[in-house]
Design goal:
Chains A, B: Catalyzes the reversible formation of acyl-phosphate (acyl-PO(4)) from acyl-[acyl-carrier-protein] (acyl-ACP). This enzyme utilizes acyl-ACP as fatty acyl donor, but not acyl-CoA. Chains A, B: GO terms for molecular function: phosphate:acyl-[acyl carrier protein] acyltransferase activity. Two copies of one chain form a homodimer. Chain A has 347 residues and is of the alpha/beta class. Chain A contains twelve helices and eleven strands. Chain A has an eleven-stranded mixed sheet, with helices on both faces. In chain A, helix 6 crosses helix 7, helix 6 packs antiparallel against helix 12 and helix 8 packs antiparallel against helix 9. The interface between A and B is large, with 60 and 59 residues.
């Protein structure tokens, strides 16, 4: 475990702002004695919330006042130009300067991506950053799904690079060699899908670093057959949010069905802990941060309506990525693989 | 109810072929005294299966021998050229000639789409056919999701036309005026998504026939806020199959959790009917046919691994669409709306 770990938090993002991020920050420093958090946002609001939790004078919670906030309706490019003193920007600047080793935000995804890209820059050879998250499966290990919305459309080379980055993340997180990587498609046969996917499949097949296992369909995501599934951001975002929606629907229907008769009402009461635990497991978007990979720094994006528990999970994820030195690992593999690949594709 | 209803079935498609389609056909004619089915496929195989169900001489089950089968690996364009005596093609030809009022297949989706397009042709003014299916929601009514994989990419005009077709389907199926139509996107704000979606949103907003209600995210699909949700085929296919996958995962995790202790084992036993019923409801792909809309004829696509029950549901869906005269209704609305729209977009 690292003895000196500093993470910058954008306290003002998401639907709940400091009401969610402050309790999460307090819990995180209490749980990890090596963790220091720099709380970026409106000093007055943060102080008030900290006071209500008796943590205003916590030695490892440092407030960094910011006069601006990036709202959800803010255009990414205008956020970069005109929100230089926003909580999101200041948190990213702290990573850039090295004052913090990672940052966490639950704010406007588009703006965070654009700003992170602008402030931190890409790792050498990486075309685009991607949002990646662990999704539960029927097996013990989760599957890493990317891109979850950082890039609406992706060309073949970008999808191929996402395969490499996903593979590094899975390798580090699962502790396994040669994670199985697949491409999300609308069928498992070679003829299925569009040109970019077919070309990405070829690039992945040719890459000696990757353990490419072919196409996956939406229904394969949760079987655990793959360790990494690659898709463009629009598709990944819809898939992840569809999971969230269907998990809610099933829990809604199950609870409703169980409430219909007195007998089932009693069952429902007894089952409550099982259902609650299950819901947490199958609702990945709510309980895990998604990480922005491919940048020269660690950025974890928490869900827009993240609860304190979800924001806490995102801080935890950022801490683990610092320990794993994820950007450095990605850079090393890219240097090795990408140069080989470039020669191969230039041929 | 129609007194004379003939539906052509492609008996050889899907993972189970006649083992699934024959029991479904026998059940369908037994359940509906007005229904005649033309069973297209290998006569010997069909006869044998019918005999095993004591239905070889059923007066409303007519075998039409076909010497070819369209396999899952068959390229759509080559299927059209070289599979003229396939069960899929013959079933479509029967709709074209008027011998049947609809057809059902669980075969290769790409080939079915390409062949149906080639044989039946588009309705006047419709650019592309779409696959549409009902998906369950938290409310009483389902939501109609399209396109589910007929078109990998769609431009703005195509998405807009899907909105109109989806609206007609929902209007007829739900018996409601002005169904609420939305576009699937990666955020609800106007700035989100790609250019085609933004332009489609404008076209839908300007259309007096449509009750366009804005963007939906993946998590909104099941809330029942919209009656129709429009997206391109790649995204719709992934979303639907993701539903299928997560429904299976949740049932798997729930059953596993319930089996851990003796107490929960007993609960699981008592809960079995509730869980089974729930699974049927939340796994739309398995229990509903998806319809191909926009063509001059009714084509229902059953799931590739359709059980007899699922194939039966698809026959039932085809019968309902014949009663509702769906292609005629779509054509009428298109004539009225599309001509107005064309003038508007030409300005």
């Amino acid at each position: 475990m690292l003895t000196n770990l500093t993470i910058a938090l954008d306290m003002m993002g998401g639907d709940y702002g400091p009401r969610s991020s402050i309790p999460a920050a307090v819990n995180a420093v209490n749980a990890n004695a090596n963790l220091r958090l720099i709380l970026c946002g409106n000093e007055q609001v943060i102080s008030k919330e900290l006071e209500s939790l008796d943590s205003l004078s916590h030695p490892r919670l440092i407030i960094r006042h910011c006069s601006q906030v990036v709202t959800n309706s803010c255009e990414p490019s205008s956020a970069v130009r005109s929100k230089k003193d926003s909580s999101m920007r200041v948190a990213l600047d702290l990573v850039k300067s090295g004052e913090a080793q990672a940052c966490v935000s639950s704010g406007n995804t588009g703006a965070l991506l654009f700003m992170a890209h602008y402030v931190l820059k890409m790792l050498p050879g990486v075309k685009r950053p991607a949002l990646i998250s662990a999704v539960p499966t029927e097996r013990k290990n989760p599957v890493y799904l990317l891109d979850l919305g950082a890039n609406v459309h992706c060309d073949a080379q970008t999808l191929y690079q996402f395969g490499i980055m996903g593979s590094v993340v899975a390798e580090q997180a699962l502790g396994c060699d040669n994670p199985k990587v697949s491409l999300l498609n609308i069928g498992s046969e070679d003829i299925k899908g569009h040109e970019d996917i077919k070309q990405a499949a070829q690039l992945m097949q040719q890459c000696s670093y990757l353990n490419y296992t072919g196409y996956s369909e939406g229904s394969d995501i949760f079987t655990g057959k793959s360790d990494v599934i690659v898709c463009e951001g629009f598709v990944g975002n819809v898939a992840l949010k569809t999971c969230e929606g269907i998990a809610k629907l099933i829990m809604f229907k199950l609870t409703k069905a169980l409430r219909k008769h007195f007998f089932y009402k009693c069952l429902a009461f007894m089952l409550r802990p099982v259902i609650k635990k299950l819901y947490k497991r199958v609702n990945p978007d709510q309980y895990n941060g998604a990480s922005l990979v491919g940048l020269r720094g660690i950025v974890v994006k928490s869900h827009g309506n993240a609860s304190p528990k979800a924001f806490y999970a995102a801080i935890d994820e950022a801490a683990r990525e610092v320990e794993r030195q994820l950007p450095e690992k990605i850079a090393a593999i890219f240097e090795q693989t990408h140069s080989t690949k470039k020669v191969a594709t230039d041929d």
